[in-house]
Design brief:
By secondary structure, this protein is an alpha/beta fold. Helix content is 24%, strand content 25%.
């Protein structure tokens, strides 16, 4: 990994602090470096302003002269009523160089941010960074596909059950896995369950971690009728495109909702929490998803993380297209 890539990865780790509070803006991280020393850093603030670059420049002050700015996303080029564009701020700074980890697909900025900075005589480089893209995955999915990034959470027994045949499901996983699940909720803009789960369990879907209680995501339900008070309704998974300001959607169940999203090809990531128990004859974690043959099931997912959470195991899978034979 080059020095530029290392600093971009560091900026991406800062960006995580902005999620999901930066909504409706993307969670961006920025670091200003001079002679190998960090002199300013920032991330998108709550409500989307100020932007990461503005925070970092303000922190660096006069020390920014001749320094390098590392930023995960191309600085915005459009002026708004909330302030000047970041590209304009940078163009008027004394920075010597700007390194960007990911271009912005927003047509108001795409390429224009780099041009504006370069025209000011500042060296500007786009250095594609996997960490930068990963930190912006929800924003990029919304811009490129017109929908949120969808993460499906599954908490199951070793034999793939989410409850006893009677419906009893509390608790399959242990305290550590449940705490991790709450941390994932805190990173989501919205959380969704199926109508059956809402009626049967009346889930709170809030964040119950000390200091993060105010990060509870907006609650959605997959239903053909009216959503209850405090909830928003979605008639079908295909309507996720109507969740205009949602970048990160967490789907928590039940089996019908999970199957609906998988069948529609709308799941980008799986969080699979496995408890070391066997239920036998219980309720399956996923309903029928429309496979015509076993071959269709292969090659669609690859594991990106695996860790132990107490006695339970978490496996994270990312979706990928089936490889041709």
């Amino acid at each position: 990994m080059s020095e530029d890539e290392r600093w971009l990865a560091a900026a991406a780790s800062l960006a995580a602090r902005a999620r999901p509070c930066s909504q409706p803006n993307p969670a961006v991280g920025a670091i200003i470096v001079s002679e190998g020393r960090v002199i300013g850093r920032g991330w998108t603030q709550a409500g989307g302003r100020p932007h990461a670059e503005a925070v970092a420049l303000d922190a660096a002050g006069a020390q920014a002269k001749g320094a390098t700015l590392y930023v995960t996303l191309e600085p915005c080029a459009h002026h708004s009523e909330r302030g000047p564009s970041c590209a304009a701020l940078i163009a008027n700074s004394d920075l010597a160089r700007v390194v960007i980890g990911c271009g912005d697909p927003d047509p108001r900025t795409a390429g224009k941010g780099l041009t504006l900075i370069g025209t000011a005589g500042i060296v500007v480089e786009l250095v594609p960074s996997g960490e930068s893209e990963a930190s912006l995955s929800g924003y990029l999915t919304q811009r490129r596909l017109g929908r949120p990034e969808v993460t499906l959470k599954l908490a199951m027994s070793l034999d793939g059950c989410i409850a006893l045949a009677s419906g009893e499901s509390q608790w399959i996983t242990g305290a550590a896995a449940r705490a991790h699940g709450h941390a994932m909720r805190a990173k989501a803009d919205a959380i969704l369950v199926g109508g059956g789960t809402l009626r049967a369990d009346e889930p709170r879907l809030d964040v119950r971690l000390p200091g993060l209680e105010d990060r509870s995501p907006k609650r959605w339900v997959l239903t053909h009728g009216l959503a209850p008070e405090g909830w928003q309704g979605l008639a079908s998974p295909e309507m996720v495109s109507e969740m205009a300001e949602v970048q990160y959607l967490l789907v928590e169940g039940g089996a019908g909702a999970a199957a609906s999203f998988l069948k529609a090809g709308l799941v980008d990531r799986l969080l699979v929490y496995r408890a070391p128990i066997l239920i036998g004859g219980g309720l399956p974690c996923i309903g029928e998803i429309g496979l015509g043959s076993l071959g269709e099931a292969h090659g669609q997912w690859h594991m990106t993380d695996r860790r132990q959470l107490g006695s339970d195991t978490l496996e994270v899978y990312e979706h990928k297209p089936c490889s041709p034979e």
